[in-house]
Amino acid sequence: MKKILLTLVIFVGLIQMAKAQTDFNCEQTGMIVNVGSQEYLVSLYHGGPVYTLPFESNVVVWEITDNQGDIITQDTVVDDPHYLFNHNIPITDTINVSAYFTNAFANDINGNSINCLIEDQLYWKIDTYPNGISYGFWTFVHENLGMDQNNTTAIDEFQIDESKLKIYPSPAYNNVYLEGPKGNYSLQIFDIQGQLFHELNNINGHQNIDVSFLHSGLYLINVNHTKGNQTIRFIKQ
């Protein structure tokens, strides 16, 4: 009888956890610097993947850059809220952090799949112990929370008729498949810094696009059509 009750409690608990996924709020999700981070070794923690099911579908694209926008490190992490990186940036400088969290099989409070971007900066803060000895640690400048990317997709006011463009898979390894509009159009692939990596002109319909040459990270495909423009995000694994 005890085993039956225990099984029932676990089952109910799992149901409640599954239901909680509809309560995910990107705009209440943040990042922290883990205790133990050092001058040239930083450990970050993202709050999104911790309570979001299914865990195996939680993907965080991390991108760390310096003041000039040059990449220090970038990686795509699956089913893990932590990110550890080394750097050689002077502690007098700030470090830019971008973390793009997605889960295609979980819904947010608006019923959309999870697309949550957090951008912030790290700086080396000096503090003092009660005994007067000073110490330093990395912390976030703005303590920004997430921005729901489902509401910020760049679509021209003259939207493409076939506006429900689809791209898959995401994350992608070697190729992405775009269900493009009818008629001629062009597309460009940018990173989140706005750098152009690839361009195709005078194409139409569905496309199989080679992205094997891209580094891991978050990218944008901008589709230009006579009836409007649309930008779609995808993750390169």
Structural features, described:
With 237 residues, this protein is mainly beta. It folds into two domains: 2-151, Immunoglobulins (Immunoglobulin-like); 166-236, Immunoglobulin-like (Sandwich), CATH 2.60.40.3080. The protein has one helix at residues 2-20, and strands spanning 31-33, 41-46, 59-65, 71-78, 82-86, 95-107, 113-128, 134-140, 147-148, 166-168, 175-179, 184-191, 196-204, 207-210, 217-225, 228-236. Strands 3, 4, 6, 7, 8 and 9 form a six-stranded antiparallel β-sheet that branches. Strand 15 (217-225) and strand 16 form a beta hairpin. 23% of the residues are buried. Residues 1-20 and 153-163 have low confidence and may be disordered.
User: Span between N and C termini?
Assistant: 48 Å
Largest sheet, in brief, is: 6 strands, antiparallel
Q: Pick out the low-confidence regions.
A: 1-20, 153-163
Query: Which structural class fits the helix and strand makeup?
Result: mainly beta
CATH architect. name of the largest domain: Sandwich
CATH topology of the largest domain: Immunoglobulin-like
Indicate the overall shape. Answer: elongated
Percentage of residues assigned to helices? under 10%
What's the CATH superfamily of the largest domain, by name? Immunoglobulins
Give the topology string: H per helix, E per strand: HEEEEEEEEEEEEEEEE
Radius of gyration: 21 Å
Question: What is the fold's blueprint, element by element?
Answer:
Elements: H1 2-20, E1 31-33, E2 41-46, E3 59-65, E4 71-78, E5 82-86, E6 95-107, E7 113-128, E8 134-140, E9 147-148, E10 166-168, E11 175-179, E12 184-191, E13 196-204, E14 207-210, E15 217-225, E16 228-236
Antiparallel strand pairs: 1-2, 2-5, 3-4, 3-6, 6-7, 7-8, 7-9, 10-11, 11-14, 12-13, 12-15, 15-16
